[in-house]
Amino acid sequence: MDTMISTDPWAGAVQDIIAAGRRMDRFGWVPATAGNISRRLPDGRIAITRSGGHKGHLTADGVIEVTADGRAVRAGDRPSAETLLHCQVYEASPDVGAVLHGHSVASTVLSMMEQGDAILLSGYEVLKVFEGQQTHDTTVRLPVFDNDQDIARLSGVVAPYLGRMPAGYVIRGHGVYVWGGTMDVALARLEGLEFLLACELERRKVAR
């Protein structure tokens, strides 16, 4: 019997999020219930992971719909406290179709070691995964924002930098935010960024 492939946009977004969660879990970027994943549908609806779920074991019930300002559409659904950080990326960039947030060891440790407001990534071939980068012979600035449990306040700090962060950004001691026009692009950028952060962490270990 032929397998039926759903053409429903919502079902497609849910499957993208489930697949992304499994991939991020496989690399150890979303331990325990950490991280969140979202996708914007062509009609503007936003699908995002429900608060508290393990991203490596997502089911369709673990994905909910939120409004453009981060409120759950269905009564009783509880979005992540950081949903607003996803929504502001979508609002600032009409071409963005997916946003990923992970908590890797490298992003957490490096952002706590870094005393400045950015981690500078220079000379790596993988820098070309980020939009606008054509050569390894360049430096990409990855902003580091101090962690804040007041997400509305944190989003206000991040807002002026949107549109000027090709590699995404890091919340200090917390994790990375990366996005792209499609889920595949966002995942490629996340994988590239995590590789670079792991390289930077190794270089700092060797230099000590």
From TrEMBL:
Its cofactor is Zn(2+). Keywords: Amino-acid biosynthesis, Lyase, Metal-binding, Methionine biosynthesis, Zinc. GO terms for cellular component: cytosol. One of its GO terms (biological process) is pentose catabolic process. Residues 15-201 form the Class II aldolase/adducin N-terminal domain. SMART domains: Aldolase_II. InterPro entries: Aldolase_class_II_sugar_metab, Aldolase_II/adducin_N, Aldolase_II/adducin_N_sf, MethylthioRu-1-P_deHdtase_MtnB. Zn(2+) binds at residues 101, 103. It catalyses: 5-(methylsulfanyl)-D-ribulose 1-phosphate = 5-methylsulfanyl-2,3-dioxopentyl phosphate + H2O. Catalyzes the dehydration of methylthioribulose-1-phosphate (MTRu-1-P) into 2,3-diketo-5-methylthiopentyl-1-phosphate (DK-MTP-1-P). Belongs to the aldolase class II family. MtnB subfamily. NCBIfam families: PRK09220.1, salvage_mtnB. This is Methylthioribulose-1-phosphate dehydratase.
